[in-house]
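Box 3.1 — From sequence to structure: FMN-dependent dehydrogenase
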Amino acid sequence: MALKGDDIAKHNDAKSCWVIIHGKAYDVTEFLPEHPGGPKIILQYAGKDATDEFDPIHPPDTLDKYLHRSKHLGAVDIDTKPLLSQCYNLFDFEAVARRVMKKTAWAYYSSAADDEITMRENHAALHRIWFRPQVLVDVETIDFSTTMLGAKCAAPFYVTATALGKLGHPEGEVLLKDEMEMNMRLIGCPSVRDLHPGLVDTRSLFVHSNPTPVDALSATVYDPLVVPPQRPKGKL
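Predicted structure (token representation):
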């Protein structure tokens, strides 16, 4: 019987260190002090899949040569992540992702720009929102519909474009596209006005004081842009 991913994850420190390489589990606890690169490198992947880090450095027969057969624990059932039905909110998804994603992937997705102050404040603001508890409420029929940017939508879910989607799933952005009702593309995507004709038009037209082949610039802005009618050449 194949080992479960949860079983491997429990052995995640120097006292009991198991790693997964090419779908098989290995007990490297006793090998830690003998590793030429030091134990810290292996401990980074304790209880996790270390295949991607192992392959570029080690020959294929390394484990057979240097690790006793009794430490070869057998195949691992890699499809033992928690079911989606077991994740009830974003915090559940985050906890699972932290455990099953590769270190580089988790570092990318869990980080933010610069000093990350904005990210931390946004996270703290979310925790300050309290919902009034409701008990014995009929939830047989629930309406998630709301209004976003003046347009009616069935549920307030939004997926923004991001980079390196394949860090989280082999299909990357394709998977997100397939699950979205509408895919906004860089070319030919509908404008907010198309989605909601009643939205106030904030576009402004700026005309150069000395007409050139490009005599006008149309910009879509959310705040007014103040541009002096006369300005020195080469300066804004």
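Summary of the box: The beta strands are 3-4, 12-13, 16-21, 24-27, 72-77, 146-148, 151-153, 203-207, 216-220.
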